[in-house]
User: Fold this.
Amino acid sequence: HAVPEIKQLQGQVKVEAALGGTVQSPTVDFESQGAVAVSDRMLASPFQADLSISGRISGGQLDIQRAIAKSADGTAGVSGLVDMHSGRLSLALSGSDIELSKLGGKVKGKGALTADISGTLSDWAASGRAEAYSLTAQDYTIPLAFATFQANPKSLVAGNVTAVSGASLATAQGTLDWKTHAIKGEVSAKGLQLAEIAKWDVDGGIDLKGKFGGTAEHPTLSADVTGTTIVARRVKLDSASAHLDANDARLLLNQISVRTAGGEVSGTADYVIDSKTASADLKGSNILIGELIPGAASGVTGGKASGSVAATFTGGQIAGGKASFKIEDIFLNETLL
Assistant:
């Protein structure tokens, strides 16, 4: 696997060449025009492009003066030298307006990259920078993401991966195995806005730190999540934490711990991405009713509630559930009930 494996390359190319130099040191200047199609399991559909190449062969070296592949899915260009005896490379690669949905995942958007390629044809090495714009996945949008990377015939290593969306900032680093498409790495995020993530009536931000794995087509995430000063349906959460396990189909929250209205809430929650449905199984203790439901009833003061709730949600609205509570220390017109 000297390069990421391409399953099929086909097309038609016209080459024009001019021979010059001397018998002892000939040169060949050439230009090539044509169209190619590349198929690979990492591509959602064949990549089709118009190809234009110009260069010179001299002294055992291939000088690629310009090689451009242009299509509706983006433009890529290569220039530099290839030693035809040793296979050594000294190339510059660039790409712009690359349609990311062609890569076969669920992410849409545009990408760009620059890279320097060295080594040999059979043992090459590349390093550079990649950027992505207007990324969308599952109706969520990331305006800007960028990273540095290093690649070789076996893997891609991405470092300083940064994604920005409003006040939210996420960073990551990780690896991709070309053969298996396996990914692994670490990710952290600060200030992720719940209103943007859940699309529900909730304000506030959360921080996240964890590890990702799986494959490029089906990633997984295991992370610890913390939040402060969260307001959900006019109820203030003083602090919240949980452990998140996620894949491209669902999010599962375990070890939920919330402090609100003077009490504590614990439990689990599950969110199915495609259907936008959720379920929660929560237990609460010593929650002050007056803080949780201000002005619940005229003349009612004090009161603590403890109990459990099991509920399902669709589009942020309660679809069903059951609850069991114990209420104590509640007063009606200053009389203990």
